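Lay summary. Proteins are chains of building blocks that fold into shapes, and those shapes determine what they do. In this project we predict the shape from the chain. Here is one chain we studied, written as its sequence of building blocks.
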Amino acid sequence: MPFRLKLLTPKGLVIDEEVDCAYFPSQKGPLGIFPDYDTTIFSLVPGVFKYSVSGNWHYFAIFGGACWVKKEETIAITELLEDAKDIDLPRAKAAKERALKAIEQGGGVKAFAEARAALNRAEARIGAKSLLTGEKK
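And here is the predicted shape, written in a compact code that computers can read:
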């Protein structure tokens, strides 16, 4: 018994489907949502968002937001969502290396926060693309 999944970005409604299950990145790790899930609201963190329709998985990098789960539907809001099909894996890996070097170099609180955010984005992209292609991270 599927449930309705809606995902909104500043560009509008980007996903509106009946799905079997969905997994969102949360502060406590991946959170699986299934039909008749209890009502809850939680924050999204950068990571891999995936959902299944009739056994077919769809993978995305998501960069934070919020999720409202009700028994009949789940609504997620995020600033940015990238389909794993559109992610350039070599570019994401290069961004990860740049972020790691920036973290190692230091440079103060602001520089660290910016590098950490860049690292989180790169890891989300790498994770989504790796799930899609079956490649190791």
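What the prediction tells us: Helices lie at 89-105, 109-133.
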